[in-house]
Amino acid sequence: MSSRTGTSGQGSNYEYVIARVRARSASLFDDDDYRKLVRMGTGEIARFMEETEYETEMNALGSRYDGVDLVEYALNRNLAKHFDDLLRWSEGALYDYIARYLRKFDVWNVKTVIRGLYSDAERTEVEDDLIRAGEFADRRIEDLLNAGSIEEVVEQLDDTIFGESLAEAFDVYEESGVLVPLENALDRAFYETLLSGLPDNPEVDSPTGLYVEFLETEVDFRNLRNALRLARSGADIDPSEYFIEGGQLFDAQEVAQLSTNLDQLVSAVRESKYGEDLDQALSALEEADNLIDFERALDAALLEYADRLSNRYPLSVCPVLSYVLAKEREVDNIRAIARGREAGLGPDEVEQELVIL
Questions:
Q1: 1.20.120, 1.10.4160, 1.20.1690, 3.40.1710: which CATH number matches 91-198?
Q2: Sequence-ordered alpha helix ranges (H) in the chain
Q3: Closest Cα partner for 192 from 165, 231, 172?
Q4: Residues near 311 by Cβ (< 8 Å), separated by ≥ 6?
Q5: Please, what is the Cα angle at 159 between 155 and 164, to 5 degrees?
């Protein structure tokens, strides 16, 4: 990543970047495209993608890969290209906002490497799932892929924003033998660093204020997801260990209390500013008692929330962040379709795995 940074809207080229983003958004798959894809075999999916904006990647990789492998490599390469373009186009504070947010892919890549080591996966399998769209240089990613143990991964990240949290979590991992402490440490370090250094009470309609509002909402949804998982697990875990600072919906004490009672947790969310956005999802959770469906509904609600901010503040960072989420959703959906069809799942089964608005 380049070192162009800033702390306010000054020097940012919002008009230019947002015009480019609007053009890119127009080529995203829509729900009709997904409904076509779930009825195709993997070969048909690949051919369909060759006629879309994934054509360049599909053609470049087609001589080396086929089937689901070709689709996945093309998806990851295309995603990284688009997000690199965002950084290349942006200046000033806008660049800083986007660069901070794209560190989420560093989190994804570290989790992928750790999970691979934990399950003794082949290096090629791990590398297939990496998305090179974050801040880590290729050399660091290669070093992580070459690590012989989870402890070595933790040591390699000592000089990053994840170093301190991972070191503390590694001790817990050694005692418990489960990855949750390490993965949670990565999430907390990412979100808390994302919000650090930004004003506590920025003007609501200012560039920084809108950025903070979006990030606070994402932190709230992450905390809600974690709280629900704990409430449903019945495990003897201190919820405060999973709490991420920076949101507005809960504080650590409230999470600890509500995580022990699903009904109270649902009621608290209904009464919050997200109640209307999540009403349908909460009803589905209560009726179906299905956390996976609720988590997909949370993802859809965050996308819709980002879209509303984008439409309300068209010359701000909001359209850019909305596009990042929408592009992620597209890649996740296509990947789920390709994997599901290869595994022999029927169209309706695959469609249930998708985030559709």
A1: 1.20.1690
A2: 14-25, 31-37, 42-50, 55-61, 67-89, 92-101, 104-118, 123-128, 138-146, 150-156, 163-176, 180-195, 207-233, 252-258, 262-270, 279-288, 291-312, 318-342, 347-351
A3: 165
A4: none
A5: 70
Q: What is the pLDDT along the chain (357 residues), one digit of tens a residue?
A: 433 333 344 578 999 999 999 999 999 999 999 999 999 999 999 999 999 999 999 999 999 999 899 999 999 999 999 999 999 999 998 999 999 999 999 999 999 999 999 999 999 889 888 888 898 999 999 999 999 999 999 999 999 999 999 999 999 899 888 888 899 899 999 998 888 877 777 776 777 888 888 898 889 888 888 877 776 666 666 777 778 888 888 888 887 787 777 788 888 888 988 888 778 777 777 775 667 877 887 888 888 888 888 988 898 899 999 999 999 999 999 999 999 999 999 999 999 889 887
Residue pair 93/7 in contact by the 8 Å Cβ criterion? yes
206-312 has the same fold as 91-198: yes
CA dihedral 284, 343, 124, 325 (to 10 degrees): -30
What is this structure's pTM?
0.86
DSSP state of 343: T
Structure tokens of 77? 């390469």
User: Tokens representing 9?
Assistant: 């809207």
Burial class of residue 86, CB neighbours in 10 A (0-12, 13-18, 19+): buried
Q: How many residues does the chain have?
A: 357
Helix 67-89 to helix 318-342 angle (10° resolution) is 170
Please give the structure tokens belonging to residue 285. Answer: 């959770």
Report the alpha-carbon distance of residue 63 to residue 349 in Å, rounded: 31
Domain ranges of the chain: 91-198, 206-312
Please tell me the distance from the alpha carbon of residue 70 to that of residue 341, in angstroms, as a whole number. 14
Q: Which CATH class is domain 206-312?
A: mainly alpha
